[in-house]
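Re: [ENG-882] Designed sequences occasionally contain unexpected residues at chain ends

Forwarding the minimal case from QA. Structure tokens:
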């Protein structure tokens, strides 16, 4: 009896959640595809960023970083950076988009899942921004003849999935925070560079000053970078990346719980008639 009850309650809810998520992702893709510059800008920026970093490290005489070949270290770092940036400006900006369009209070008065809306923006950004960028980075990896050292395909899959989870949870926690502060654009621009540094995208976390290493390990992105590099470039097995995967899981769970609490605060303010539609 209890099993039947669970299915009848949760399956319709999951179906509604997926319906809202997929509809939001589709709308986001349509919006971005309407501006050709967006389709060019996203692959172009990380490509130029990679070239600047590659030339900088090469001129300094470093060909190996944290035990990995320079090009491989940076390609994975820039890919992770793109995951983070796309979620910052998509899932993180999801509720802010609704606020700017004047539909925020309608959203919170509707039965639609707010989490599904936020995640829908994130999924949409992954499809329209991340996939083309990753394709460009793969082309760069082939041109530079970056050699992979893969000993465990499941370890690679779990590591990449962990990096995606880390990116999505980092964007999710910002969705409510941006609206509550009413300074989304300023904070989003401020966060980009520090997170590039603390995530290990451009510099190994172990080379940061001690106090910054502590902050870096709070972010799930740094654990995701470690796991992907170890499994793709270092031949790591699941046991070797287990601690990184646990770090991703714990920090992502905390960010998702905090993000849900912030969204509830925004919803409560919207239902109580608070003025959220201004900077």
């Amino acid at each position: 009896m209890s099993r039947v009850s669970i299915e009848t309650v949760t399956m319709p809810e999951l179906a509604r959640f997926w319906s809202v998520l997929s509809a939001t992702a589709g709308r986001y893709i349509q919006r971005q595809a309407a501006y050709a510059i967006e389709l060019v800008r996203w692959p172009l920026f990380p490509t130029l960023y990679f070239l600047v970093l590659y030339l900088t490290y090469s001129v300094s005489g470093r060909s190996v970083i944290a035990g990995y070949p320079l090009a491989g270290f940076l390609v994975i770092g820039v890919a992770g950076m793109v995951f983070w940036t796309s979620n910052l400006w998509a899932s993180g900006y999801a509720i802010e988009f609704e606020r700017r369009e004047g539909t925020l209070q309608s959203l919170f008065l509707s039965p639609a899942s707010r989490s599904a809306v936020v995640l829908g923006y994130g999924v949409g950004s992954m499809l329209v921004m991340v996939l083309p960028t990753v394709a460009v980075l793969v082309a760069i990896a082939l041109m530079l003849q970056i050699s992979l050292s893969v000993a465990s395909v499941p370890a690679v899959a779990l590591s990449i999935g962990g990096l995606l989870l880390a990116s999505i949870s980092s964007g999710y926690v910002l969705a409510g925070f941006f609206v509550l502060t009413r300074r989304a654009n300023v904070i989003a621009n401020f966060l980009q560079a520090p997170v590039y540094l603390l995530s290990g995208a451009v510099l190994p976390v172990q080379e940061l000053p001690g106090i910054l290493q502590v902050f870096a390990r709070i972010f799930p992105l740094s654990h995701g970078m470690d796991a992907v590099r170890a499994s793709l470039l270092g031949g790591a097995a699941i046991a070797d990346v287990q601690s990184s995967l646990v770090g991703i899981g714990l920090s992502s769970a905390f960010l998702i719980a905090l993000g849900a609490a912030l969204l509830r605060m925004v919803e409560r303010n919207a239902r109580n008639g608070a003025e959220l539609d201004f900077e």
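QA comment: On inspection the terminal residues look reasonable. The CA atoms of residues 223 and 247 lie 6 Å apart. Proposing we downgrade this to a documentation issue.
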